[in-house]
RNA sequence: GGCUGGUUGGAGAAACGGUUAACUCACAAGCCUUUCACGCUUGCAUUCACGGGUUCGAAUCCCGUACCAGUCACCA
C-alpha cells in the first residue's frame, strides 16, 4: 500500500492537512507500506517560499515522517512538481500524438464570452462538445499560431457524455453514481506547468500511489480523474475522500479557514502548549469513533496500535471541539512519567515561555519533585491540559514568584484576627512534623489546630460553630496562604515537604512580618 | 441553479427492522475531601430534520419537502 500527502507550499501546516496526513500515514504503516510526501508547487502565484520545508518540520513534530519526500528524496523522484516538468512533457507529447489532447488558444476573454453565451442559452457552461472550438482547428492554423508564438494551453480531449452515469467507489463513502465528465479540461497551463488533474494522473501513476487520500472537495472531480487514468490505460488508484474539520461560526458550520481562524494552524496549538500526544489522540477520535472505546479498553497503549479504518470514518466533517482536546490532553499529561513531562515541558518552555524554562532549569530535580506530586498510580492528578498550565499552578514554589504573591493582597479569611493568624503560623512553625508520613502528619496538624482553637473535624465544627475559630480546613488554609501566597495548591503535605523546613520558616516569618506591619 | 454527499442531545457519536436510543466530552446536582485537582453517583433526546408510506414492529426500508456541506477556474 502506498499513500501520500501532497501539500501546496502556500503557508503553515493546516489542521486539516495534519489530519489527512495522519490518516494516510497510518494507513500505509498499518500495512507496512510506504507513505511519501510530494510538493505541489505548480501554482507559482500563491507559493510562499520555504513553506514546504516548514510543513515537513511541523509534520515531524507530530511524529509523521515520510519514507520519501522532497528533502529526503527517494527512488520515485523528483518529489517537487516543478522539477517534474520533463516527465509531464513526455506524457503530454504522447497524448498529443495519440489524439488524446490538443492545444487551445482561447483567451480568458474568449472563454468568458462563451460562458455568457452559454448562460443565456441555458446550457451547461464549459469547454465541451461544439463549444470546444480549438478541437476543430485545422492543423495548419495550429501550426501557424504556434509558430507565431501565440500562448496556448493543452486540453484533454474528453469522450465523455453528460447522459452517461458512472459508478464511483470511495473507500470512505462507498459506491454511488456520478455523471461522466464531458469537459475538455486544461491539463497544461500556458506557463507550461500541469494542472492538478494532470499532475495527479502522472505523479500518482509514476510514484505508484495505490490509495489517494485527499479532502472531500476533490470528490466532484473524480470522474475527470478516472477518465484520465482510463484514457492512458493506467490502473486506477483507490480513493479515500476525507471529511473536513469544521468550526461553528455565527450559527453556521464551515470549514476551518486558513485565513480567518488562527486555530487552523497546528502551530497555534504547539504554541499554546498542547501536548502532541493529546492532539494526535483527539484527531484519532474524529478519524474513527470506535477509537474512544478502544482507548478505554487500552488506556496505556500506543495510539498507533489502533487499526484505523476508512470504512469507520464519518462522512460528515466533525466540529472541532477544543474542550475535548483539553480533556484528552489532561489525561495524556497525567499519565506521563515525571521525567517525560519534565523534558517535554522544558522543551516547550524553552521556545515559548523562557522564564518558565529558566525556573525548571535552575533545579531540574526540584521541578521533577513538584511535578511528581500525586503522579503515577491509577488515579493521578489531572491539573494540566497543556504545558502552559503548569507554571501558573506551581510558580509559588519559586521564591521570586512567591514574593510577587506576597506583595499583593493576601487572601486570608477576614473574620480571623491577625493575632489568631500569627498564633497559628507560629504554632505550625514550631511543629512542621515533616519527618512523619502524610497521614500522621495530618493527625499532628489536627492536634495543632485544636491547640489554636480550631476544630480538627469539619463535622464537629458544623455542629457547633461558636466553639471554634474554624475547622481544620481553615487552619490549613492559613498555613497554605503563608507558604504559597495562595488559597489552593496541589497536595499540601508534599508541597511542604518539597519546600523544606528552612524555606517554610522563612516564608512564615515573612508572612508574620507582613501581618505585624 | 445543476450534480454529489449528509441530517440522532450543547459537541463527537453507537445502534447491521425488534423491549427503557450505548459510550466520550461539556453542563447540573450530590458524595468524597484540609484547599485544589482527581474519583464516585445521579440527572441531561418520551425520541432520532419534517411530512407521508411499507411492516405485527422503523432512528433504521421507500417517497416527497426542508436544511447543511462540497463542487461547477489556465487554484490546489
**Oligomeric assembly:** single chain
Q: Mean pLDDT score, rounded? A: 93
Radius of gyration: 33 Å
Q: Give the overall form.
A: elongated
For the record, give the distance between the C-alpha atoms at the N and C termini, rounded to a whole number.
Answer: 75 Å
Strand order of the largest sheet: 3-4-7
Q: Can you tell me the residue ranges where pLDDT is under 50 for at least 5 consecutive residues?
A: none
Structure description:
This protein has 517 residues and is mostly helical. Helix content is 47%, strand content 10%. The protein contains 21 helices and 13 strands. It has helices spanning 15-30, 51-61, 85-97, 108-121, 139-147, 196-206, 222-232, 266-272, 276-287, 290-297, 322-334, 338-352, 354-362, 364-371, 387-394, 399-406, 418-430, 438-451, 458-463, 472-484, 492-516, and strands spanning 2-5, 34-37, 101-104, 153-156, 165-170, 174-179, 186-188, 211-215, 238-242, 246-249, 252-255, 454-455, 470-471. It starts with a strand and ends with a helix. It binds one RNA strand of 76 nucleotides through β6, β11, α10, α11 and α18.
How would you summarize this macromolecular structure in one to three sentences?
The chain is built from 21 helices and 13 strands.
Give the key terms:
21 helices; single chain; RNA-binding; mainly alpha; two-stranded parallel ribbon; 517 residues; 13 strands; three-stranded antiparallel sheet
Write the layout of secondary structure elements.
Blueprint: E1 2-5, H1 15-30, E2 34-37, H2 51-61, H3 85-97, E3 101-104, H4 108-121, H5 139-147, E4 153-156, E5 165-170, E6 174-179, E7 186-188, H6 196-206, E8 211-215, H7 222-232, E9 238-242, E10 246-249, E11 252-255, H8 266-272, H9 276-287, H10 290-297, H11 322-334, H12 338-352, H13 354-362, H14 364-371, H15 387-394, H16 399-406, H17 418-430, H18 438-451, E12 454-455, H19 458-463, E13 470-471, H20 472-484, H21 492-516
Parallel strand pairs: 1-2, 8-9, 12-13
Antiparallel strand pairs: 3-4, 4-7, 5-6, 10-11
The protein binds one RNA strand of 76 nucleotides through β6, β11, α10, α11 and α18.
Amino acid at each position: 500500500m502506498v499513500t501520500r500527502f501532497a501539500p501546496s507550499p502556500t503557508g503553515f501546516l493546516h489542521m486539516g492537512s495534519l489530519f489527512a496526513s495522519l490518516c494516510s500515514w497510518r494507513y500505509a504503516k498499518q500495512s507496512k507500506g510506504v507513505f511519501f510526501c510530494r510538493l505541489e508547487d505548480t501554482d507559482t502565484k500563491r507559493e510562499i517560499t520555504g513553506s514546504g520545508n516548514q510543513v515537513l518540520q511541523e509534520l515531524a513534530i507530530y511524529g509523521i515522517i515520510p519514507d520519501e519526500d522532497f528533502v529526503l528524496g527517494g527512488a520515485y523522484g523528483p518529489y517537487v512538481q516543478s522539477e517534474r516538468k520533463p516527465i509531464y512533457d513526455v506524457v503530454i507529447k504522447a497524448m498529443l500524438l495519440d489524439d488524446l489532447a490538443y492545444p487551445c488558444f482561447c483567451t480568458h476573454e474568449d472563454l468568458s464570452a462563451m460562458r455568457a453565451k452559454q448562460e443565456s442559452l441555458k446550457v451547461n457552461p464549459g469547454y465541451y462538445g461544439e463549444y470546444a472550438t480549438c478541437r476543430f482547428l485545422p492543423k495548419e492554423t495550429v501550426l501557424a499560431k504556434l509558430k507565431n508564438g501565440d500562448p496556448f494551453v493543452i486540453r484533454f480531449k474528453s469522450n465523455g457524455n453528460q447522459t452517461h452515469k458512472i459508478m464511483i467507489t470511495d473507500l470512505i463513502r462507498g459506491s454511488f453514481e456520478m455523471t461522466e465528465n464531458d469537459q475538455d479540461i486544461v491539463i497544461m497551463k500556458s506557463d507550461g506547468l500541469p494542472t492538478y488533474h494532470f499532475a495527479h494522473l502522472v505523479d500518482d501513476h509514476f510514484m505508484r500511489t495505490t490509495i489517494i487520500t485527499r479532502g472531500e472537495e476533490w470528490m466532484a472531480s473524480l470522474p475527470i480523474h478516472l477518465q484520465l487514468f482510463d484514457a492512458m490505460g493506467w490502473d486506477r488508484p483507490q480513493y479515500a475522500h476525507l471529511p473536513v474539520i469544521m468550526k461553528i461560526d455565527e450559527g453556521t458550520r464551515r470549514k476551518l479557514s486558513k485565513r480567518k481562524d488562527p486555530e487552523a494552524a497546528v502551530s497555534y496549538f504547539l504554541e499554546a502548549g498542547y501536548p502532541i500526544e493529546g492532539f494526535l489522540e483527539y484527531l484519532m477520535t474524529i478519524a474513527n469513533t470506535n477509537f474512544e472505546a478502544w482507548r478505554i479498553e487500552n488506556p496505556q497503549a500506543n495510539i498507533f496500535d489502533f487499526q484505523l479504518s476508512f470504512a469507520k470514518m464519518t462522512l460528515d466533517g466533525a466540529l472541532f471541539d477544543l474542550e475535548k482536546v483539553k480533556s484528552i490532553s489532561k489525561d495524556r499529561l497525567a499519565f506521563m512519567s515525571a521525567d517525560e513531562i519534565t523534558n517535554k515541558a522544558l522543551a516547550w518552555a524553552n521556545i515559548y515561555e523562557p522564564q518558565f524554562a529558566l525556573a525548571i532549569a535552575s533545579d531540574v530535580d526540584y521541578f521533577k519533585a513538584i511535578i511528581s506530586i500525586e503522579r503515577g498510580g491509577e488515579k493521578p492528578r489531572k491539573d494540566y491540559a497543556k504545558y502552559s498550565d503548569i507554571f501558573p499552578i506551581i510558580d509559588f514554589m519559586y521564591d521570586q514568584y512567591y514574593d510577587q504573591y506576597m506583595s499583593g493582597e493576601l487572601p486570608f479569611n477576614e473574620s480571623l484576627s491577625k493575632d489568631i493568624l500569627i498564633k497559628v503560623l507560629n504554632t505550625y512553625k514550631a511543629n512542621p512534623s515533616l519527618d512523619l508520613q502524610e497521614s500522621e502528619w495530618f493527625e499532628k496538624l489536627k492536634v495543632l489546630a485544636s491547640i489554636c482553637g480550631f476544630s480538627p473535624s469539619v463535622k464537629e465544627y458544623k455542629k457547633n460553630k461558636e466553639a471554634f475559630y474554624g475547622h481544620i480546613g481553615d487552619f490549613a488554609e492559613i498555613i497554605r496562604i503563608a507558604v504559597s501566597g495562595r488559597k489552593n495548591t496541589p497536595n499540601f503535605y508534599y508541597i511542604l515537604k518539597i519546600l523544606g523546613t528552612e524555606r517554610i520558616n522563612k516564608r512564615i516569618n515573612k508572612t508574620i512580618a507582613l501581618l505585624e506591619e
